[in-house]
Amino acid sequence: MSDEQPKRPDTKLVHGGRRKEWLRNMVNVPVSRTSTVLFDSVEDMHKAYPPRDGQPSYGRHGTWTQWSLAEALNDLEPGAAGTRLYPSGSAAVSVALLSVLRPGDELLMVDSAYAPTRSFCDRDLKQLGVQTTYYDPLSTPDQVGALITDKTRAVFLESPGSLTFEVQDVPGICAIAKGRGVSTLLDNTWATPFFFQAIGKGIDLSIVACTKYISGHSDAMMGSVTAAPSHWEKLTRTGRGLGQYVSPDDAYLVARGLRTLGVRLRQHELSAVKIAHWLKDQPQVGPILHPAFHESAGHDFWQRDFQGSTGLFSFALRGGTKEARDRLIDSLELFGIGYSWGGFESLAVPADTDQLRTASKRDFGGPLVRLHVGLEDPDDLIADLERALAAYPA
Ligand SMILES: Cc1ncc(COP(=O)(O)O)c(C=O)c1O
Questions:
Q1: Residues ≥6 apart with Cβ < 8 Å to 205
Q2: Closest ligand 1 atom to 223 CA
Q3: What is the average per-residue pLDDT within 183-198?
Q4: How much distance in Å is there from the Cα of 375 to the middle of ligand 1?
Q5: Per-residue b/e over 358-390, b at no fewer than 16 CB within 10 Å?
Q6: For residue range 292-340, what is the model confidence (pLDDT) as tens digits?
Q7: Distance from the Cα of residue 231 to its chain's centroid
Q8: Best of 166, 211, 215, 356 to mutate for ligand 1, by most ligand atoms within 8 A of CB?
């Protein structure tokens, strides 16, 4: 997009990455599939290396279909140097971590990280000689700073955290890390850069599982990492070294989702807030773990730093067993049971953290349910929950 006139986020979603030379009079950037790129001469072929975005060189380095999506995502993050795409959100997490860590380094990882992110640290990074220390998501910047040693190279944040939705003091932690020469990485999948612009808040590498809201239709897997200028070269080098690539077909699908991200997120937000307020008044329900609620940990940071909330939150049941909670979920008719979230459809899953957390055990007074509130009528979803809760033996 041209820099001549500042654009607001909704306008960026519609116009981002739609360069005239890529569109060729179409509304959408075409899906260009290729492995080989043909050149007019050997000299031209040599000139295409090292690969640059916007200059076709070889299929793995992308065509306008992938560059356009990456540019549109990047437009949402003022101050960013660039965005790279990966075949899944987890691939994006791994490449981002590998781009800043070497054997002998230490990593500070938030205890509320997405479970496969933890597994990557505990198994793969450990094997590479990187030691991970977990920190409580409710740590103050000074408490995180106190864990930084001479060997610490990176602090990883996920805000809000998986399953329990603690919002972190991202700018505060980034300021401390920057002062000590430590890189900061954030899993920004929940808010997306539409509701939280991470690079402007001090993050060096902002990761989004585009599988969720960016794609929005539960039909594609993808991840992205947006880099601050200081981290763009290393991110690019690591991804290329590992042969990371997304297909133009998937890039097209995800770009199609991106165009409607704003309207979808606002509807997810409205419906989720309505349902969470209704849940709060139910006798079988305990704490609501939703960043827009005062009682939710880190709510003040959410209010200070975010432009909205989305459709994913958890609630605690008041007493009862995990088995009874599972039966409650089984009895829901409009909420599907399955991994992932961010699509048009509602989902409900158990949210057990007791086997996952090592630095922050919290008791919510009963088992947790995580809801993804989709684009159905929220009153129908409430009726479904009401029927299921009526049978809950709290
Ligand atoms: C917070 C978060 N980050 C990353 C991922 C990984 O994304 P993907 O499933 O595309 O690998 C997920 C998936 O559920 C997630 O919830």
A1: 96, 99, 100, 183, 184, 185, 186, 225, 226, 227, 228, 231, 235
A2: 10
A3: 99
A4: 20
A5: eebebebebbbbbbbbbbeebeebbebbeebbe
A6: 999 999 999 999 999 999 999 999 999 999 999 999 999 999 999 999 9
A7: 18
A8: 211
Q: How is 372-390 classified by DSSP, letter by letter?
A: E--SS-HHHHHHHHHHHHH
**Which atom of ligand 1 approaches the CA of 93 most closely?**
4
pLDDT value at residue 393 = 86
**Structure tokens, 117:** 């992110």
Integer Cα distance of 353 and 361 in angstroms:
8
Compute the distance from residue 39 Cα to the ligand 1 centre, in Å.
39
Report the residue among 94, 253, 340 best suited for mutation to probe ligand 1: largest number of ligand atoms under 8 A from its CB. Answer: 340
Segment 38-64, tens digit of pLDDT: 999 999 999 999 999 999 999 999 999
The predicted structure's pLDDT at residue 3: 55
pLDDT for 157-181, tens place per residue?
999 999 999 999 999 999 999 999 9
Residues of the chain with pLDDT > 90, as a percent, come to 98
Q: Is the CB of 343 under 6 A from ligand 1?
A: no
CA of 217 to the centre of ligand 1 (A): 15
